[in-house]
């Protein structure tokens, strides 16, 4: 693993335009569970029953009670971890330009990254299904479920449910930055949900190196990615940054 850390530090030091694609794994060390795998949210509940837009519209109280209320508690308490802070440091060093994240927890911005494309939306805001009024999730009173706007309409989080389209401006900008980078850093994503998982493929086809950081192999491993550093996001990022700081001194 030491060789790969060294290799990643060298590759990043030589790069001019790095883009990262991140997923739930990067927030695991902040106490937010992933969706798939051991301890994952979809191990306990069926996403088609709780995370599909049709399921939400059919029974918003059920989805609020089982999924959204719990998520609110977890996200409210979460703080950025070393992986988020490492990516913020990479931006500060002028190496990382943009993060495309599938996460809705806002932790990249909290860590200090300034160009974050929130592919699946942001959980920090709720929108009334009837009048479109927006309200911060932290201000939502969950004593009444589903929470309602003063107009009587039901609030929904400003995240993408299954069955909904990625906002076109986020999709097209992601495709653009993925096609222009010289390194695509893929961290903490199982790379099975489309179209997010296509971004590293676009980078590869455009001539970029693709580096994965993940304790587990993914469908990109050995096909799209040049190499994978198998470890936890925070630990691996700390080691890469330590080497990188020596290289660019
Ligand atoms: P997943 O839950 O599918 O995958 C999490 C990945 O993180 C796995 O590959 C794990 O091996 C890895 N992982 C676990 N712990 C880690 C750690 N400490 N450091 C680094 N990696 C770690 O999450 P996503 O790929 O983000 O969509 O899932 C994609 C989408 O599926 C989500 O945005 C969500 C979900 O359904 C919607 O809700 C629309």
Structural write-up:
- With 249 residues, the chain is an alpha/beta fold.
- It folds into two domains: 1-31 and 80-120 and 166-249, TPP-binding domain (Rossmann fold, 3-Layer(aba) Sandwich); 33-77 and 123-159, 2-Layer Sandwich (SIR2/SIRT2 'Small Domain'), CATH 3.30.1600.10.
- The protein is built from ten helices and nine strands.
- The chain has helices at 2-14, 41-44, 47-50, 53-58, 60-77, 82-92, 107-111, 168-180, 198-205, 233-247; strands at 18-22, 96-101, 116-118, 121-128, 134-136, 155-159, 183-187, 209-213, 227-229.
- It has a six-stranded parallel beta sheet, sandwiched between helices. Strands 5-4-6 form a three-stranded antiparallel beta sheet, with helices on one face.
- Helix 1 (2-14) crosses helix 10 (233-247).
- The longest helix is centred in the N-terminal third of the chain and has 18 residues, at 60-77.
- The chain is elongated.
- The two termini are 23 Å apart.
- The model has no long low-confidence stretch (mean pLDDT 96).
- It binds 2'-O-acetyl adenosine-5-diphosphoribose.
- 2'-O-acetyl adenosine-5-diphosphoribose is lined by residues 23-26, 28-29, 34-37, 40, 47, 51, 102, 120, 160, 162, 188-190, 193, 214-216, 218, 232-233.
Brief digest:
With 249 residues, the protein is α/β, with parallel strands linked by helices. The chain is built from 10 helices and 9 strands.
**Tally of alpha and pi helices:** 10
SS elements, strand count: 9
Q: How much β-strand is present in the residues?
A: 15-25%
Which descriptor suits the 3D outline? Answer: elongated
What would you report as the Rg, rounded to the nearest angstrom?
Answer: 19 Å
